[in-house]
């Protein structure tokens, strides 16, 4: 369910990916439906908020991170299907079937800058950059798995941001993850 509110002249859409009371675990989230709903309702940007486990030991607990890169090598949704809106064959001229090319950051520079500025203005600075590591849930990772993620440059890890990043990218919906 998407709720609407206004903050000044700005309309805000809010979608709780886990549902009221956190009834859905990460493996029950329908990322495609969530992102499509925001897109269909006219969202012009998406901010994903995620509670992460620190992988980088220098990251103080309770810190904010505005991620700059993504580690999501399996590119799969919780049901095991590919993380895409383009799962069916179709018209090769359809621009929605294009490959999402990840030069630079998979996150929107403008949305990232707004998050960093807002964190600074609120007196709670945020780390600018670092790789977000998406892992499948609902279980947590073993020490060996965390060491592998650290070796890939991941600074923090959780179970929801990978599909959201990819699906927003496919829809050209600016997205940032904090």
Instruction: Give the H and E element order.
Output: EEHEEEEHEEHEHE
Q: Biggest β-sheet: count, sense, barrel?
A: 4 strands, mixed
User: Helical content, roughly?
Assistant: 10-25%
- Mass-distribution shape: globular
Strands side by side in the biggest sheet: 4-9-8-6
Mean pLDDT over the residues: 91
Stretches where pLDDT is under 50 for at least 5 consecutive residues are: none
* CA gyration radius, whole angstroms: 16 Å
Distance N terminus to C terminus?
22 Å
The computed structural class is alpha/beta
Number of strands: 10
Number of helices: 4
Query: How big a fraction of the residues is strand?
Result: 15-25%
Written description of the protein model:
The protein is an alpha/beta fold and 178 residues long. 24% of the residues lie in helices and 21% in strands. It has four helices and ten strands, in the order ββαββββαββαβαβ. It has helices at residues 31-40, 109-121, 143-151, 161-170; strands spanning 2-7, 10-15, 46-48, 53-54, 64-66, 69-71, 126-128, 131-134, 154-158, 175-177. The strands form four sheets. It has a four-stranded mixed beta sheet with strand order 4-9-8-6. Strands 1-2 form a two-stranded antiparallel sheet. It has a two-stranded parallel ribbon with strand order 3-10. Strand 1 (2-7) and strand 2 form a beta hairpin. Helix 1 (31-40) crosses helix 4 (161-170). The longest helix is centred in the middle third of the chain and has 13 residues, at 109-121. The chain starts with a strand and ends with a strand. The relative contact order is 0.27. The model has no long low-confidence stretch (mean pLDDT 91).
């Amino acid at each position: 369910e998407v709720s609407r509110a206004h903050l000044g002249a700005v309309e805000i859409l809010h979608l709780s990916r886990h549902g009221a009371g956190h009834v859905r675990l990460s493996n029950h989230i329908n990322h495609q439906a969530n992102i499509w709903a925001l897109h269909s309702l006219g969202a012009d940007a998406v901010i994903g908020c995620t509670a992460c486990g620190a992988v980088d030991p220098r990251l103080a607990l309770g810190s904010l991170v505005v991620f700059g890169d993504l580690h999501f090598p399996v590119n799969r949704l919780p049901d095991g299907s590919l993380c895409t809106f383009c799962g069916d064959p179709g018209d090769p001229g359809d621009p929605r079937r294009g490959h999402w090319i990840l030069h630079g950051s998979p996150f929107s520079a403008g949305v990232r800058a707004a998050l960093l500025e807002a964190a600074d203005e609120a007196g709670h600075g945020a780390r600018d950059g670092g790789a977000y590591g998406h892992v499948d849930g609902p279980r947590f990772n073993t020490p060996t798995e965390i060491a592998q993620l650290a070796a890939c440059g991941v600074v923090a890890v959780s179970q929801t941001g990978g599909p959201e990043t990819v699906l927003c990218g496919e829809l050209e919906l600016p997205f940032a993850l904090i």
